[in-house]
Amino acid sequence: MSDRASLASRQLPVMTLSNGAATSLTAPPKPLPSTLSAAERAQARFGVTGNAIITGGAGTLALSAARALFEHGLQGIAIFDLQSTLDTSSTAIDALKADFPAANIITLTVDVTDAVAVDQAVEDCTSKLSSINTLLCFAGIVGCVHAMDMTPEQWRKTLDVNTTGSFFCAQAVAKRMAAQGTGGSIMLTASISGHRVNYPQPQVSYNVSKAAIVAMKNSLAAEWSGHGIRVNCISPGYMDTVLNEGPGLEQARNTWASRCPMGRMGAIGELDGAIVLLCSRAGSYMTGADIVIDGGSIVF
Q: Out of 93, 104, 166, 295, which residue is the most buried by the measure of CB atoms under 10 Å away?
């Protein structure tokens, strides 16, 4: 059969959406018990249950998110990162374990660009944590290189880590969630860089990689809805972390702040509220959403 004839006779795979019935995994959550006090209802509304995997989990923003999720009821977490980053953040990880002694906190050395390694790590976590209910994808890199000077290796590396790595992790976790029959929440990390061109630094590969995340969560939210898996993303603006510090970045930091209506970068912890929302009962009707958290930078 010729290639043209083969195309004409092919059958397209068809995604299955949820019907939202009471017996489906996308049914509305049961009403909170009327016997709860106002404070208990508030707590239950943003309650987080089960276990999570967090990639790039030894980074400052990821560890802040992990702490917030534990405060809202998360039971266990698997932190995926490179060994060098796990070593650097060992004190912060130990503090997390000390503050939540009842929680099951494990660390794994994982290269998110290695699909086989990712799948094995997720399988290991499924057995150690008994179930996976939440995935947070924080793993990412950025490179500021003029487009005309960018090498093929620089281009591919950024997309491989930021976009393909996020897909590998989401895919591996979604398979386990589907097998569990419990549904779940997957949060990808996009960026305002996926919506607007950064200034003054050139970073086309990063911008493209994050725009792809915004598109990816739409497709995955649709495809996996029948399994009760919600897929959303956040788009942070410039965050005031060690990655954006140093005298060499002072001019850029001033530019970023001057182009932001709130006049500053984001502080550690200012992503946590949106993350808890997406991972909790409060976000039960949210999928395919992108929450921009940038002090208003992309309004211009």
A: 166
